[in-house]
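User: Reviewer 2 asked us to show a designed sequence for the structure in our supplementary figure. I'm pasting the structure tokens here. Could you produce the per-position amino acids so we can include them in the response letter?
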């Protein structure tokens, strides 16, 4: 078998084995939690907030399944050389879900800001149907930026392991366009979301409105909306900020950092980022009374259906 390699099983392989098992557990729990959240909200009343949360959960569910793949590339390369397919597939999916998630949070931030500013004018309210179109636009934009990676990514074997990145034959202009696209698609939304969250808090603190406005929006509702936005934005930005800062630091200190240390730092940062896919559904659940009710209704309907089917299975047929 010419495709089998015979590198000794070293410390880096043990590290990747453990993290692959860990991230696989994250993937299973994250996928199930986000799937339950999607199923609950699809049965609920369609609101702007629910539409955005469905889009976020869908992105997190895809990303949860993809999260162990970066580690699997290196782990399986110890045995096989046909790991290029996993590398080519994993990186575009990672970029796709990252851009989609950040732009969903950006959309939520803009809509919350617009709602608070125009609280006294109901005609400025965004409808759920309009929000669906914006969510589809987020996914189309994320696909447009990530799709070219299917043709640009490649896996390279080095002395320290397998590296996934742009192929060596990629033109310098294409590389520049790629890095600009990633900057616009990922880092720019992070800065805008952080700025909008701060602006919303400052505007809400300085604004003086009656306890109940003509549009039905009260200070209490505005405060709850801001808390939900802050919770979602903090969960999203924390993971991406930690991973981005770690990659920048490793890039600057590449010549002085040992390979094992840099890989350990990357895996920890990757774990912080991917843990949000597991935690986000629980944050949505505890952060919104309406979502808790939707999940409880789904669970009650599931138990009712399950008991009915069990009862039907226990009914004797033809007196037997």
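Assistant: Here is a per-position design you can include in the supplement:
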């Amino acid at each position: 078998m010419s495709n089998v390699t015979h590198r000794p099983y070293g410390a880096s392989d043990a590290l990747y084995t453990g993290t692959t098992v860990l991230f696989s557990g994250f993937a299973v729990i994250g996928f199930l939690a986000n799937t339950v959240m999607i199923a609950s909200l699809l049965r609920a009343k369609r609101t702007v907030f629910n539409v955005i949360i469905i889009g976020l959960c869908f992105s997190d569910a895809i990303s949860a399944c993809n999260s162990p793949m970066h580690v699997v590339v290196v782990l399986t390369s110890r045995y096989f050389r046909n790991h290029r397919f996993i590398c080519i597939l994993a990186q575009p999916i990672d970029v796709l879900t990252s851009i989609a998630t950040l732009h969903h949070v950006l959309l939520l931030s803009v809509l919350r800001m617009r709602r608070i500013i125009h609280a006294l004018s109901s005609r400025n309210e965004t409808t759920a149907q309009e929000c669906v179109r914006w969510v589809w636009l987020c996914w189309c934009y994320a696909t447009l930026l990530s799709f070219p990676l299917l043709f640009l990514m490649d896996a390279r074997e080095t002395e320290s392991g397998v590296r996934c990145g742009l192929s060596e034959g990629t033109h310098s202009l294409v590389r520049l366009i790629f890095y600009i696209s990633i900057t616009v698609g990922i880092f720019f939304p992070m800065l805008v979301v952080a700025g909008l969250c701060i602006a919303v808090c400052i505007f809400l603190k300085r604004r003086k409105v009656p306890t109940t406005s003509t549009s039905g929006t009260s200070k209490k509702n505005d405060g709850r909306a801001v808390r939900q936005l802050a919770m979602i934005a903090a969960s999203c930005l924390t993971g991406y900020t930690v991973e981005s800062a770690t990659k920048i630091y490793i890039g600057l200190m590449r010549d002085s950092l040992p390979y094992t240390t840099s890989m350990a730092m990357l895996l920890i940062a990757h774990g912080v980022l991917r843990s949000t896919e597991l935690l986000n559904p629980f944050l949505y659940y505890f952060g919104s009374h309406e979502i808790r009710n939707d999940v409880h209704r789904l669970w009650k309907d599931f138990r009712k259906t399950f008991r009915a089917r069990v009862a039907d299975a226990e009914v004797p047929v033809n007196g037997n």
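For the response letter, you might also mention the following. The beta strands are 153-158, 161-166. Confidence is low (pLDDT under 50) at residues 1-11, 211-217.
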